[in-house]
Amino acid sequence: MSTLAHTMMTAARAADSGLAGSGELDRYPYAEAPVADRVGSSAWEGSDPELGRVGRRAAGSRGRGLHGQLVQQLGQMIVSGDLGADRPLVPEEIGQRFEVSRTVVRESLRVLEAKGLVSARPNVGTRVRPVSDWNLLDPDIIEWRAFGPQRDDQRRELSELRWTIEPLAARLAAGHGRDDVQQRLADMVEIMGHAMGQGDVLTFSRADAEFHSLLIQLAGNRMLEHLSGIVSAALQVSGGPVTGCDRPNETSLVQHGRIVDALAAGDGAAAESAMRQLLTVHPEVERVVPAPREH
After folding, report:
1. DSSP string spanning 38-90?
2. CB contact set of 291 (below 8 Å; sequence gap of 6+)
3. Is 4:186 a contact under the CB 8 Å cutoff?
4. Measured distance CA(262)–CA(33) in Å, rounded
5. CA distances (Å), 270 to each of 51, 103, 173, 215, 280, in order?
6. CA separation (Å) from 119 to 86, 144, 212?
7. Contact status, residue 274 vs residue 215, Cβ threshold 8 Å
8. 125-128, strands of its sheet edge to edge
9. Residues 27, 75: Cα–Cα separation, whole Å
10. Which of 65, 66, 98, 197 is the 20 to 30 A CA-CA neighbour of 286?
């Protein structure tokens, strides 16, 4: 095993022993019934009391402090529909329910405003915005949708979007002979192979995410590079319609290797074809993304 592979696998195991990873964090239990029009005590009754005590949760959800955890809570509630469009959000009520300071509430609402989930206006206050205003490409919103009532739509849309982005990125990357990045891609395939052999899903998924991120960077298109966060978020979303790289297996590993070989040969068509094969969904959800045509 290479030094890089050993280091990455060790780091992944260390991380796995600490905070839960993406998709494993405590999540707001989405309510089936609509809540009252105003955010008062009744709007919070469906949630687990422990989730109200933000301070009791593991410090730094996603590596952030209390306001990051509150962003997670409120974001999930908005995306799930528990806090519907045009719903007023009263800072005092939020602070009391989640037992956090006004400063934490204010910082959290600012983050949600930047994501397009809420708007704050003088004499109107802070209100939830309609879905059409949300930044649906934001990695947090992608995750919240993927674990909420819209999970099926979100995962289907991610599969379709990746089908559009990544084959093009693979073709473009073949025209950029950066040996250092191509070696890094080969290293990621090696790491994935070792991780699969040891049943280390965490290391496999992290190497897989880095592989796809590096590939988009290698494409040399800055607009595509800005979309790399979408791909990373998609790879962290478990369940639902899945592509070949969502489940560690020998076929997935072979297709990753084919992409690396095609890039080394400067063969854009082969790199694109291998990526399409990799992103082909499993038979049970084949309707989501069609299998690539054989040439």
Report:
1. S-SHHHHTTS-HHHH-GGGSPS-GGG--HHHHHHHHHHHHHHHTSS-TT-EE-
2. 280
3. no
4. 52
5. 49, 53, 11, 14, 15
6. 9, 19, 34
7. no
8. 88-89, 125-128, 118-121
9. 11
10. 197
Rounded to the nearest angstrom, the gap between the alpha carbon of residue 283 and the centroid of all alpha carbons in its chain is 23
Q: Residue-wise pLDDT tens for the chain (295 aa)?
A: 555 555 555 555 554 543 333 333 233 222 222 333 334 444 555 444 433 333 333 333 444 688 889 999 999 999 999 998 888 999 999 999 999 999 999 999 999 999 999 999 988 899 999 999 999 988 899 889 988 888 888 888 888 888 889 999 999 999 887 888 889 999 999 999 999 999 998 899 889 989 999 999 899 898 888 887 777 777 776 444 445 555 678 888 999 999 999 999 999 999 999 999 998 854 443 444 444 444 3
Contact 248, 192 (CB under 8 A): yes
Q: Structure tokens of 46?
A: 């469906």
Structure tokens at 164: 């559009």
Which amino acid, 158? L
Q: Answer yes or no: are the C-beta atoms of 109 and 118 closer than 8 Å.
A: yes
Identify residue 98 by its one-letter amino acid code: F
Question: 291: which 2 tokens?
Answer: 């299998």
